[in-house]
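Problem statement: downstream parser choked on a complex file, so we are re-checking the raw output for the magnesium ion run. The parser issue turned out to be on our end (a line-ending mismatch), but while we're here, posting the original submission so the record is complete.
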Amino acid sequence: MGERQVLLCDLDGVVWRRAVPIPGSVEALNDLIASGWEVLFITNSSHDPASHHVERLESLGVPASDRVLTSPMAAALLCEPGERVLCAAGPGVRLELERRGCEVVPGESDVPGAVDAVVVGLHPEFDYRRLGVAMRAVRSGARLIGTNSDPTFPTEAELLPGGGSILAAVATASGVAPVIAGKPEAPMADLITTRLAGPVMRLVMVGDRASTDGRMAEAVGAEFAHVLTGVDDDAPSDTGSHDDLRAVADWLLERGRADRGD
Ligand SMILES: [Mg+2]
């Protein structure tokens, strides 16, 4: 469809901060959807399964079924069905690896036999012992895959260490540079392009991090809308910023009206 308009929308720091929706975000999404925008949610969040994000969005009144793309989905595409994969991550990664047809090896203790890959994501139980298990697997030849490299993620109360911080520990101990699956890397770009499945007249990516969301936008040929509702502890966007998702929606809707000459 020639008129197709798609918004690629980050979740953490744009729609919500951990459990708390950012004021105006839900209405903004529904206003865009009502005026014909397709919305896909693109998250590097790796701990929870995609179904968890879908349920949360739908409980807020935002249609999200089959519209959430996660870094664990992208990481699973870097593993082949039948491969033995050590999961140094939460249930979101384990589920996607199982869905992919991998044999998932838990990362609590060394297991006999070779492991094809180690996937690292956000892992609240990660500790020195697990670091050793992952390190030995990689030093024995397993590929090192990270769901994402985000150093931190925002919550309402405080900043927490992200999966990228855990990945950095495994990479340092292993002496191996990881392949990263999530925003802004190629596996996530492939996931988005496959999901779009055809030409889009207007493609916009909204996110709170220029270093991941901004570069992801560039990689898939989207315009980047930077919002200030998350924590952006890296460089500010050089294309300007919007206060929040509400402001981005108003800007897009206004531009649509101007394009139509309303
Ligand atoms: Mg974010």
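For whoever reads this later: The CA atoms of residues 152 and 161 lie 4 Å apart.
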